[in-house]
Design brief:
By secondary structure, the chain is of the alpha/beta class. The protein contains eleven helices and 14 strands. The chain has helices spanning 40-47, 69-73, 91-99, 110-116, 132-144, 162-177, 189-195, 213-218, 231-238, 265-278, 293-307; strands spanning 2-11, 14-24, 29-33, 55-60, 63-65, 76-79, 150-154, 181-186, 198-203, 206-212, 223-228, 244-250, 253-258, 283-288. The strands form three sheets. Strands 6-7-8-3-9-10 form a six-stranded mixed sheet, with helices on both faces. The protein has a four-stranded antiparallel sheet with strand order 2-1-4-5. A four-stranded antiparallel sheet has the order 12-13-11-14, covered by helices on one side. The longest helix has 16 residues, at 162-177. The protein is elongated, with a radius of gyration of 24 Å.
Length: 308
C-alpha cells in the first residue's frame, strides 16, 4: 500500500529524511515510530504531496507519485500533526464541509463515521468545546467519510488519556479487520507495540530496523528469566560462564542474557539449569523473555550513537 525507494528530503544543509526504503503490506496496521524530530511527519507530508522530496521514488496504493497523486489520494484518509477544524462549527457541520469536496456518496457516510468514533451524541456541539481526544476522534471520522483503503495517522494518540488511547487502539484494529491499511506514526512505542502488526523504527531520518513486532522484539540476544531460592547466588554462579553475556537480579528475578553468537540456545539453557540444580539452588522458574519494542529501540539507537 505504501512503497518508497531511497526517499530523501533536505532543507538547506539539513537532511531530515535520508534514503528511506519503506514497504507497508496491504491490510495491516503498520507503525512508523521514532523520537520527536526523527523525520516521521516529513515523510508523511511527502507521501501526501504536501512537500516535494529532494530525491527518491514513492507509491501509494500501487500508484506512482506525484504522477498519479489525485487518483491515489481519493482513497486515502489522513491526519497530519493534529486535526484542524472550524471551532465555531459543530462536528457534523465540519464533516459536511469536508464531504462537499468529495464524491456525493461521502455525505451518506457522515452519520456512520460519527457513530464509529463515538461522537454521535456530541456531533451538534461546536468543535471549540471539544477535548483533544474528541478532536482526534473527529479527525478519524473525517478520514472515514472518504471510505479509504489506506489511513495515514500522525500521532493519533497524542494528548489522549488512557481510556482514549485504548478506544483508539480498538478502533484501529477494527479498521484493519475490515481489510483497510493503517499507517500509524508515533513516538509512543509501548502503545504502538500493542496496536500494530509490523513497523519501521526511524532515527535521525533513517530507518534503522523494519519488520513484524515479533521479528523486532526477538532480534536481540537470547534472554531468559530465572526464579530461584537464591537469585544472587545463582547470578554469581552463571555470570563467569563463557555462554553468558550478563546475569543480574532485577525486580526480584534473575535476568540472564546469552552471548549473541550462540546458536544452540536450548542446550545452553539446559546446561545452566543443570549447574544450578547441582549447586543446590532450587529452581521454580526458567523461561525466555522477549525484549519490548522500547528496549529494542533504545538498544538500536544506542548502538548507532556508539558507531557515530
Amino acid at each position: 500500500m505504501v512503497a518508497t525507494e531511497h526517499l530523501t528530503k533536505r532543507f538547506g544543509g539539513a537532511t531530515v529524511v535520508s534514503k528511506v526504503d519503506l514497504r507497508v503490506p496491504r491490510g495491516t496496521a503498520f507503525g512508523y515510530v521514532g523520537p520527536n524530530g526523527a523525520g516521521k511527519t516529513t515523510l508523511i507530508r511527502m507521501l501526501l504531496g504536501l512537500i516535494r522530496p529532494t530525491s527518491g521514488r514513492m507509491e501509494l496504493l500501487g500508484l506512482p507519485l506525484p504522477a498519479k497523486r489525485r487518483q491515489a489520494l481519493a482513497r486515502v484518509g489522513s491526519i497530519v500533526d493534529e486535526p484542524r477544524f472550524h471551532g465555531h462549527m459543530t462536528g457534523r457541520q465540519n464533516l459536511w464541509a469536508i464531504a462537499a469536496a468529495r464524491e456525493p456518496e461521502a455525505h451518506a457516510r457522515i452519520e456512520p463515521a460519527l457513530a464509529r468514533v463515538g461522537l454521535l451524541d456530541r456531533a451538534d456541539d461546536r468543535v471549540a468545546k471539544y477535548s483533544m481526544g474528541m478532536r482526534q476522534r473527529l479527525g478519524i471520522a473525517a478520514c472515514l467519510i472518504a471510505d479509504p483503503e489506506l489511513l495515514i495517522l500522525d500521532e493519533p494518540m497524542n494528548g489522549l488519556d488512557p481510556a482514549g488511547i485504548d478506544e483508539t487502539r480498538v478502533l484501529i484494529r477494527s479498521l484493519v479487520a475490515e481489510g483497510r491499511t493503517v499507517v500509524l506514526s508515533s513516538h509512543l512505542l509501548d502503545e504502538v507495540e500493542k496496536t500494530v502488526d509490523a513497523l519501521a523504527i526511524v532515527d535521525q531520518g533513517r530507518i534503522v530496523a523494519q519488520g513484524s513486532i515479533g521479528e523486532l522484539t526477538r532480534s536481540g540476544p537470547p534472554t531468559f528469566v530465572v526464579g530461584s531460592a537464591d537469585n544472587h547466588r545463582a547470578g554469581a554462579l552463571l555470570a563467569p560462564l563463557a555462554s553468558v553475556a550478563r546475569a543480574a537480579v532485577e525486580d526480584g528475578v534473575l535476568r540472564v542474557s546469552l552471548d549473541g553468537r550462540i546458536s544452540a540456545v536450548n542446550e545452553v539453557i539446559a546446561d545452566i539449569n543443570r549447574r544450578l540444580v547441582e549447586a543446590g539452588i532450587p529452581i521454580y522458574r526458567l523461561e525466555p523473555e522477549h525484549a519490548s519494542l522500547e528496549q529494542r529501540f533504545l538498544e538500536i539507537t544506542s548502538r548507532l550513537e556508539e558507531a557515530a
